[in-house]
Amino acid sequence: MYDWALQYAQGLSLIQELPSKPQKVLDLGTIAAPFSLAALQHGAVEVLAIGENERALRLGAELSGHLGYPISIETRELFSINPLHFSFGWDLIILPYTLFKQFNDNETRASYIKQLLPLLTQEGHILIVESSEAKVNQEFLRLRDLLSEQEVPILAPCLWIGRCPALRHGSSPCFAQRPLIDKPFMIKEIQRASKINLNSLKMSYLILSSPRAEKRQLADNLYRIVSPAVQTQRGTRYFLCGVSGSGTLGTTLQEHPKHSKAFEYLKRGDVVSIEDAVCLGDDKQVTDKTQLQLKAPCDKPLL
Length: 303
Hints:
By secondary structure, the protein is of the alpha/beta class. It has eight helices and 16 strands. The strands form two sheets. Strands 1, 2, 3, 4, 5, 6, 7 and 8 form an eight-stranded mixed beta sheet that branches. Strands 9, 10, 11, 12, 13, 14, 15 and 16 form an eight-stranded mixed beta sheet that branches.
């Protein structure tokens, strides 16, 4: 149940990032359906959760039912689930900590994902969530590259569509980090007893669009903040990854004018637009002439 509470919080944050609220949701390979409950609380009206552990599934369904959110459940091994046997018209298919447990290589994982894509509505999405642990994250980024090479549309978190810059820099990680708001009492007590200091949610994730969706056009000056603030001799800096590639963003300004004030409040995962920065290679320096605007907070869609 410790993992359930954290994954439920992840689901609330990640589903909020979709451009539209899903009505019909398929939760594949789940244990106790925390992402299903999150989807229902975001407005879904039909949720089917499929997993291998019947007892855990029933526990999750009972918990959701007590809160007034009914979930349909089905017990099956993911290996035995032929995507062609599912109905069509899903607005969201969730693979929560599923692919890396069930499949041993990225080619098989990518193949399974591509079989699921035709089941989506034109505006539907697939949400894939895995651990942020270093070894898993590196393999996850390779899966992301494989999907990108096979022209599977990636909506988030990536704005860059080429090979992942983090993989070019050796073992550099790239994962999401969101604030853990309203920490449940049980989580507080477990962390206190275990001497765990956890105040944020960390996960590797991808949101994929239906291949039939209209292709979005993004401006070259859009970047996602992919690190927390780093204090250096040259002031506060962030790592960026955007439509034009990766780089760094920093400033020596002590006080920002209105048109770059957003720099003072940036968080990992935010999407910003940057104009008139001083550029030295891949480094961007915010000056008093730079226009920096927040286009999407870390847990909101880029519209």
